[in-house]
Structures are given as C-alpha cells and as structure tokens.
Amino acid sequence: MVSLILLLPILTILSFFAVFPEPAHALWPQPRNLQTGPSTLRLSPSFTITVGVPNPPADLLAAAQRTRALLFNDKLGRLVLGRGTGDLKAVSSARVLSHLTLKLDGNVTTTTARPISVEAKLPFGQRDEGYRLIVPEDGSAAVLSANSTLGLFRGLTTFGQLWYTVSGTVYTLGAPVEIQDSPAYPYRGFMLDTARNYFPVSDIERTLDAMSWVHINTLHWHIVDSQSFPLVVPGFTDIAQKGAYSADAVYTPQDVANIVSYAGARGIDVLIEIDTPGHTSVISKAHPEHIACAEAKPWSTYANEPPAGQLRLASSATTNFTVGLLSAVAKLFPSPLFSTGGDEINARCYHDDAQTQNDLAGRSVEQALDVFTQATHGALKKLGKTPVVWEEMILNFNLTLSNDTIALVWISSSDAAAVASKGFRVIHAGSNSFYLDCGAGGWVGDFPAGNSWCEPYKTWQNAYTFDPLANLTTAQAPLVLGGQQLLWTEQSGPQNLDSIAWPRAAASAEVFWSGSGGNVSAALPRLHELGYRLRQRGVHAISLQPEWCALRPFACDLTA
Amino acid sequence: MVSLILLLPILTILSFFAVFPEPAHALWPQPRNLQTGPSTLRLSPSFTITVGVPNPPADLLAAAQRTRALLFNDKLGRLVLGRGTGDLKAVSSARVLSHLTLKLDGNVTTTTARPISVEAKLPFGQRDEGYRLIVPEDGSAAVLSANSTLGLFRGLTTFGQLWYTVSGTVYTLGAPVEIQDSPAYPYRGFMLDTARNYFPVSDIERTLDAMSWVHINTLHWHIVDSQSFPLVVPGFTDIAQKGAYSADAVYTPQDVANIVSYAGARGIDVLIEIDTPGHTSVISKAHPEHIACAEAKPWSTYANEPPAGQLRLASSATTNFTVGLLSAVAKLFPSPLFSTGGDEINARCYHDDAQTQNDLAGRSVEQALDVFTQATHGALKKLGKTPVVWEEMILNFNLTLSNDTIALVWISSSDAAAVASKGFRVIHAGSNSFYLDCGAGGWVGDFPAGNSWCEPYKTWQNAYTFDPLANLTTAQAPLVLGGQQLLWTEQSGPQNLDSIAWPRAAASAEVFWSGSGGNVSAALPRLHELGYRLRQRGVHAISLQPEWCALRPFACDLTA
C-alpha cells in the first residue's frame, strides 16, 4: 500500500485539477488519491453490496445496509443549474452498476476480521483507516478493499458520496473512479460540551452520523463541567442526582453504552473528559467537602465563568475520591484515551480556601497538583488509558507526566510549538480557528457591551486554511496527532447544534484527513454539496451562500 | 384611557421593582403599566375564554381558542431551581380562575367590531393596540378589555404569558394582576429576506406566530432580490418561472393570501418590498431588455454582491414595466404600506450600459431616478399605498418624494437624524444594532480571510439598549415610527431561521413596545422565559446562557 501511495500522486494531481471547475464528485474529505474518468454510470434499483468477508462482524453488515439505503434516500440533485437535468441524456445511456463488493486485503482469517468498533479503538499506531475503491466504467462490480473493517467503513462512506439523483435515477459522473485513501493525521475529532446545556442522546447520535460521513474518528465528549454533571457514574450516582439539570437531563450507563456502541459502529472512538481539578463546582452539591470556593462570589475572582469551584487538590481524601470517580468513569468508556482536563485552574480559589491552605502544609499548588495528577493518571494508566490534558498542564506547570500524555492545544494554536518542544503529542483545538461557539457575543448578564474573549466568529475558511505544522520542526511534526473543532455550549443547545456545527466542522475533518493546503475556492462547491447532502440526511446544515452561488460554482468568488 | 396612563406610572414603577430579583411573570414585552399582588392563582382545567363581543369576528374567536390551548400546552416550568416545585404548596391552596371575559370598550356596535386582520392594517394613526387586563386574586373572572379587536389580541397574548405549569397544574404568581398597556411606537417589525435563500410557507407562518407572541406588528417581507424571484405575480408569472430557484421554491398568489391572512389574524401587517431599481438582476432571466449590467463581471464593479443587475431606470418601457409589476404586486397585499426599496444603486452599472446612456439623453441618473420613482410611487399612491424606501432614496438623491414617504434607516442608525431633518418618517433598521445576519464571517468565495462588512454579531444586548430617539430633537421624535430586526439570508435558510432570530428579535420588540431604557440585567430572566416558552411552542429559540444561569436569575451577571 505504501508503494501505491508513492506512485499515485502525479496521476492524482492531474485528475484532481481536471475535474475543476465543475466537480464531478462531491467527496468530503477529498480522498488523498483520486482518479476519475469521463463516463456516467447509474445505479441499478436492485443494487447490492456484498460483504465479502468471512464471518463478517455485525457492525460492518449494518454499515453496508445503511450505505445502501442512503444511496437511494439521499436524492441529491447535483448543485448546478437545472440540478442535474443536464445530465439526463448521459444518464439514460449510461452503463448500470449492480454490485459493490467489500473485501479485506491480506491474509484475513475470521479472527482478524474485527468489528469496526474494535478497530476504531485501537491505539493510533495500530489503527488502519485506509481503503481502496475501484468503480469501473463498464458496469462490472465495484470493489472496495482495505486492511481492516474500519478502512472498509471509511470506503463505504466515500462510496456513498459519489452519487446524485435526477428524475429518480441514481448516478455518478467521472467513472471509472479509482481511490486510494488514508488519513494524513490519525486523530480527527469533534468536541461537544454537554454540561453548559444538555443534549438528548438522539442529538449526539445524529452528530455521530454527521461526523462519520466526513471521516471524523473521535467524539471528544466534554460531558461534565461546573454547571452540571449529567453523567450517572456507578458508585457516584449522587453527583448526577444532585448535579444534573433535572432527573431527565442525564446520561445513564446504558445511554453511555448505547452512544459508545453507536459511535464505534461508525468508526468513532469516544474520548471522555472529566475536567479536573477546575471546572468542578457542581460536585459540591453532593460532596461539598471536596470543592474549594464552591459558588464563591464574585465568581469572576474565582473562575473564568460562573459558578466557581475546584477540587481540593491538596487533600488526600479528595484525591482518593477523584481517583475513584475517574476510574469508575473510565470503565464506562472503552477508548484507549481519557482526558483529565486541567484547564483554567484558578490560584485565588486555593489561596482563599482555608482547608486547601491547611492541606498544602507548605507545599505549593503546583506541587500538590503534581501529586494529584500522578494519582489520577496513575490510576488511569492501570486501566490501560493514555492521559489527555489541556495545554496548561504541560505549559503552565512543571508536572511529572508520562511521555505519552497528549495535549489539547486550545488557547492559541501557536502554543503547539511549546508543547512539542517538551516532547508531548498535540491535538489541535485552537480557539483561534476551531471554536465553533465564538463570535456570538458575550453571554454573562448585566453586560450591555456584550463582547467576548474569543471574537470573531471562526469561519469555515479559517479552519480550512489551518496549518497543523506551523512553527514546528520536521522532527516535531509527527507529534501532531490531528485536531478538531469544538462546541462549548454556553449559548448553544439542541436548538442550534446542527446549525452551529455543520457544515463548518467538516473543515477540520478535511484538513486532518486530506492534509492541509487546500484552497477555499476549490473546496466551496464540494462543501456546498456536503451541506446539501447532510440536509437530505436529516442534519440541519446551514447555507454558506445564497443558492444562486451554490448552483454556480465559483460565480460568487471575490474576483469572479 | 389617556388619563389612566398618566396616573399609573408611579404605582407601576413601585410594583415593577417589587417583583425583582425574582420575576413573578415572564411577560415580554414588558407591559407599560403593570401592577401585581402577592397571591397565587391556578387555572381551572375547564377554564374558558368568553368573547363578549357582539357578532365576534372569526379571527378573534380563533385567537381565543389558540390562547386557551397554549395555556395548557406550554407546560413551562418556572425558571428557578426546582422549576416551580417550590410553588407547589401555594398552588395547592390557591384560588381557581375559571373564566376570562373579553369585551370591547365604548359604544361598540357590530359594525365597529372589525376583524383583527382589518384593525392590523389600519393607518398608524387609526390603529389601536392598547388593552386593559385585570386578573383578580379571588378567582372571579378575569377581564380583558380594549377599544379594538387588535387590542384584545395583544391582551390575549399577554394573558398567555402569565402562566407556568408545575405537576400538571397551570398557575400564576403575583395576583391580582392589573395591566394597562399600549405600544410606545406604532411600527414594530421583523424583516425576512426570502430571495437569497428560500423559506417554505410553514417557516414564515411559524415566524409570524413567534412575532405575534411579542407584539411585533409588521412582517417586512423582502421577498425578491437579484438572486431569485420567488413571487408569482399575476400578469408577470414568467419572472418567477425563470427566476425562482425551482418550480417548488415559489410563493403563489394563494400562498401570499394565506400568509397575509395568517399574519392578519395575528395582528400583523405584511409590508411587501419589491426592491428597485437595484437588486433586480434576476428579472433579466425573463426580461433581459429591462436590466442593465445583468450578471456583468466582475460583479464587485457593478453590485455590492453577485449577481449584478439593475432596472434600466431611464427607459420609459422599463418604467412602465416596473409600474405594472409593482401595481400587480400591490394588489396581492392589502397593507397600507409598500416598499420600493432603493438601496445600493450602483452608478457604474448605468455608466457602462449603452442603452441607459442612450435613454438618459443627457439627463443625470438622479434625474432619471426621480422620474422613475415618481412613476412607481404615483401608481402605488393611486392604489392607496404609502411608499417606504431605504434611506439612500432620501439622503443620497434629491428626489421628489411624497411627504408621507417612510425611510428605512439601515446603513447607520445615526442617519435617522438626517432623515428626520428632511421631515420624513423613520423606521429603525440599523445594521449596527439590528442585522441578525452580521457576525457570521464573509460568504463570498475565494476569500480565506472571511471577514465581512458588518462584523461583529449584533447581540440581543445591543438591540435592547438601542435608543430610537438618539440625536433627534423633541420636535423630530414623533417622526420615529419604530423599528425592527432584519434577517438577510446569504448564510441562512430554514435550517437556522429560528436559531438566528429567536429570542434575539424579541429585543427590538420590547424596545419599540415598552419604550427604550430597559436594562439588560433586569431583562434577561424574562428573556430566558420567553425563549423557553418559544421552544415549548415549537420555535427553536437558542440558549442565551448555560441553564445553570437561566435557573438562577442574576447569578451570572458580570459582577455577581
């Protein structure tokens, strides 16, 4: 496979440009190697997908079934004038494709054909998302092959994006199609905060679907925070009981299992975050003994947003409690990763907390944080988890962290260089490019000016032109695992989840799958088509331009 | 009524402040005179609304029925900790309200009890939206009285906002309630652009419902523009046939009649706008002879956004065509107002158009515009319409305009003073405070920076703190008819209509009903409740804060 990838680029670049200015396929993210031809091909109404894998895992069979259903349910008219009626003549005389066959490459035995959900949770070095897709122009069976069921799933997703519908006929342009694909970066995420405002399970599942359609492979679930604690943790059920917004606004262990399973079947790992020691005010409702400066006023003295409250990190009782809590949570989530957070620790909170001052017994907060973190990370390590932290844990404190700790760089993407210089791996989550919530004004009350710290709105263009390796040395480049867009939900809820996230969140998905350097003009027609396809599939992706522009690729470019 | 208004303020101010910090009623807009008491009152499950009006108009009866249904369908838990469970004791021992009686004040005969829809379309001086609502604390019948069915409708809307639900019981706090209400300004609007992207009739109707719930009385319908022409105009059907995005993306005369009727029954007048002579590119699809610089490139030379194209204002044939078109449209809309637009006229378009240069025959564009405008406005006047124009028609050109012409001030609210100094009436529609679309980045293609001319996002706080009379003399103040928030839809569609508009658009509704000067801290708890109530009624209003804040009035204020 490696040699093929090395051989293909020249052909690919040629064919890539040959399809502009009118893209023949609305593929997102752009495959890394794509060859197209001149022919139209239509799908047989009795089109079948054959999973040619011995003892195929149930989630692969289900994925094939879903893909098959979408082919006929999408009913996406091509985004050109006439919505594809101009293709009718070519469609009517086109060859008919009746079959897609899936097969695993190499020496596959039944024991190696692991479920997608298992492949999706392998450590990064072992996870293989590559696939090869060949759609001949003569109507003979299309073939999708990969080294893993996860690769087959990615290929199915791409196959599902090849098709348009006109007058009831499903067809593609540019056959034959040959795709050799694999991601530029192993981590491509989407973060959702379910603590500021709660989201029902169905919203999360719809989001997972949308993520899977653009090859995003990780849901970073910021599940709890100072405002609410919706996670029902076995052995710690009193926290959600007293800290969820309501008895209905919770995620039970069964909900979690369903979400993890739903995600896994779509090639998505669920990276859970229990933010510590800050962002934990709500734990005081059930365990006041563990929280310093709980709801202390003025909140702005003790926290970046209300309510204030941090775990008493210098207390051995609180440390034990936290280790127990994190361990219990870790057992609900099979991911190899676990985030312990670590952002925005407020020094004044500990300074003014008499118990913490007593517990410190002359140690600094940093020293106590080191002990605390070694305890939590040590427990997670024992459970097989690799710790993930916000960047402050690496850049603001001198802590004893395991070398494999992963940093979420959020304050500024430029901090990636400092993290890398300390040898830690980086996930790009920069507020400067990837915060979906920015640009909606300030939300704190009694503040008529109403601005906010992370203005302006982070456009898809901003995310799309992001360079993951900026300011890094060649040697540091492999430390960048990938990146994600993030939705903090102070001003969001189920009402605007889709509209604030889609299609914007697809921008980073392409950067981290296809590699950076794409240009926004070339990308826009494909992004329109993704948006329209998402809508056909029930995700309320917004319009990026007037439909007049969407139907006329490049006509609304700045210099057109 | 006038004397009552003069007598009430002192009592009102006292009671207004007495209910803080925990508002007993989530009324939006705030009634101009409100007195509340200490008692809880619950609604009988067999609660009835009696319309004590001889030969009541059907739309009033229907409004009473809808109000009655909402009382029991809202199921809004009070936005405090426990969502009203703390009220249960008071509720269980509360008196029961079984009746609301509506009656018209004065010497009402069957001929004066006009439908709401008729009252809603009267000229401003004759339109009476005032009402008086008394809800006794002893369970005796509540009484809603007004001089008009339109006033009764406003009162019904307010009555519907008095109620919460806890454990299946519908109740209010703060009885007795006495409200004497009427608007500070006669025009309170919401503008929707259905040309950049199309909205189905159902979206417009849902928007009309939401508007009516905050006493907004005008839908300013920017129905067509350069990108698409969805309005099917009798005698001019070819324009929509060739200029709508699709055969389905149109408003037929029957759709218009339905929308006008739906609006009228909710106390809303529909102010239609056919923007001229600019913003008309799409007319070239059916009538190329009438459009200068149609889709000329580069678009940025000939228009503020693609595609370019303006009516050939110097041509008598085009003038006649426009007069015919506007007259045909005017007959579809019973409003006393009609907007002929007039914004963003591009000089270069006419300069480079050979036919226009020939048609001008030595006249200036301004002179031709004067003739053109006198023709269109003259025709509209004959049909009983008062012309509405964008501010450039008054400030940028020296035109012969009727004294009663109304200006939409959009470029900057500070331009209101210049408009008023010329003696024209003003509707505030300033991009600096009221443009709902601003702050989402630029949408033109091939523009990686992605900023836009009207950054940043216009927060609800910005709209709420707007002063309609800033920089105006006392003598000029009566020229201000009111104002509106506006949704231009380059980056919007049905997917984000609710989330971009609500509850933000309620901010101007309160400014122009209750009067300016409200403070954002006091308003926020009520605005939260409005947002939650809108959701219960099917409008996807967004969260303005984490629910933690919404349940704790003032706890997330900047200095709390």
TrEMBL record, chains A, B:
It holds the Pfam family Glycohydro_20b2. InterPro entries: Beta_hexosaminidase_sua/sub, GH, Glyco_hydro_20_cat, Hex-like_dom2, HEX_eukaryotic_N. GO terms for molecular function: beta-N-acetylhexosaminidase activity. It catalyses: Hydrolysis of terminal non-reducing N-acetyl-D-hexosamine residues in N-acetyl-beta-D-hexosaminides. GO terms for cellular component: membrane. Residues 185-515 form the Glycoside hydrolase family 20 catalytic domain. Keywords: Glycoprotein, Glycosidase, Hydrolase, Signal. The keyword Hydrolase applies. SUPFAM superfamilies: (Trans)glycosidases, beta-N-acetylhexosaminidase-like domain. Residues 27-162 form the Beta-hexosaminidase eukaryotic type N-terminal domain. It is an enzyme of class 3 (hydrolase). Residues 1-26 form the signal peptide. Its EC number is 3.2.1.52. The active site is at residue 344. One of its GO terms (biological process) is glycosaminoglycan metabolic process. Belongs to the glycosyl hydrolase 20 family. This is Beta-hexosaminidase. It comes from Multifurca ochricompacta. The lineage of its organism: Eukaryota, Fungi, Dikarya, Basidiomycota, Agaricomycotina.
